[in-house]
Amino acid sequence: MEGDDSNFPPDSSDDHSQRGSVASSATLSRAQDVLIYLCGDSAVHLSVEGLGSVSVQELGRSVREALHIPESAQDAFAFWLSSPLLELQLKLRHQPYKLCRQWQDLLYRFTEASEEDISQDEPCLQYRRNVFYPKAKELQIDDEGVLRLLYEEARDRVLTGRYPCDPEHWTALGALSLALDEGTALDGQQFTTTVREKKLSSFLPVHVVMGSGGLFSTLRGKSSRQTGLEQNLLEEYRKISTFAGNSPEPTQLLHQYLNTCHTLPYYGCAFFVGEIDKPAQGILQRAKRKTVNVGICLEGVYVMDVKEKHVLLGLQFNELSWDHSYPEEQGDSHILWLEFDGDEDGTPVNKLLKIYSKQAELMSGFIEFCVELKSASEGGAAAEMDGEVSLSQQPAGPDGSSKNGRGGRRGVLHRQSSVLCNRVHSLNTISYVDNGKEIKRLKPKRAASFFTRQVSTYSAVQVTESLEQS
């Protein structure tokens, strides 16, 4: 999970959680060596006095000075506490040392990790992209050092599959990475040698390089698959050489890489871990759940299949309503509820998706803060225009934002085979209609026989139990 800068739970107390040895105040008052990790393999080494009470704001000044980050880009980055179990973006007022002292309590509260894993987990302090930094401002950055920091993080997200990509995206991004590492003047033989020395997974997503289908099929098809991937990568690399020349400016390639990433709607998201119900495959089959990543940014919410590396549901904020519920009984889960427009056999309905997660409270607060930020920025833009609305901003056609309370329905922006496309048909959702008096649940009429196939028809049936209990 990537953390919530605005709704991170407050420090419970300065003496909360006394596990392990506690450094004395005298020791903490002396200068201590601190490593601030960057995306990639580098880190900033600082000597910090009063480590026990130093704040993120104070650390930020030292890190920006060490990295020579210009004042115009100082808001592009934030501090994170990160481990394999949990990632949290910190506020300026947070004191990293004290939060590290509370780390195990945070893991118990926001993860499903075992006691053994929690006892062995240890966070590191990272300096990474600020989730709330607008992409429009990122496009205005010209400083190569800042662009490289953003590039390294985006590259990691692509290679690890956190940013699902279509083949044209990951091939173009891989070619740009190669050009940034080795220049644009490699011939075919040099290209092949370089790619095989560094491994293809240094430029293309790991799941793409490894493939799927089991060990036997992986071994059998590995050679031919990698040859094809190398050939596609070479073709894309030659395009860069043709258009950019033999010695393009690094900032040109960095901008091109980030611009390509900006076409991914979940670029810059904070990611949370959860589970959703799988659609039932048969009457007697027990309900199962699927692990998902929930990405939230200033534009919307994206639910992604962790295993398949594709989007299950993507919604802008004007297309959804949300809430979260706490467990009512022991063994129940925290739930984030997402409501959005859908249809059942052509009938407009409301759909509810349940996301089970201990991080539901964080996700709900994060969405609320993003909506407030977006509303504030849009309000400021409207004020600057003195209330005038340009023709290019006026809604038109079925995608217009004035069609219903959540801004209407988007048109189909991507082909169905794209990893960016919604897959609502694969979700197990609750469908209902609101007739102005009471909420009606949509349920299929049962066939006369389990062995007789009939066209499914839906009728409105009054709910006798709350939606949360269904």
From TrEMBL:
Question: Region labeled Disordered — which residues?
Answer: 1-23, 384-410
Query: Which SMART domains has this protein been placed in?
Result: B41 (SM00295)
Domain of life, per UniProt, equals: Eukaryota
Q: Which Gene Ontology cellular-component terms appear in the entry?
A: plasma membrane
A biological process from GO = negative regulation of canonical Wnt signaling pathway
SUPFAM superfamilies, alphabetically?
Answer: Second domain of FERM
InterPro entries this protein is in?
Answer: Band_41_domain, FERM/acyl-CoA-bd_prot_sf, FERM_2, FERM_central, FERM_domain, KRIT1/FRMD8, KRIT1_FRMD8_FERM_C, PH-like_dom_sf
Please state every residue range assigned to the domain named FERM.
32-378
Q: Name one Pfam family in it.
A: KRIT1_FRMD8_FERM_C
Q: Where is the composition biased (Low complexity)?
A: 1-11
Output this protein's name. FERM domain-containing protein 8
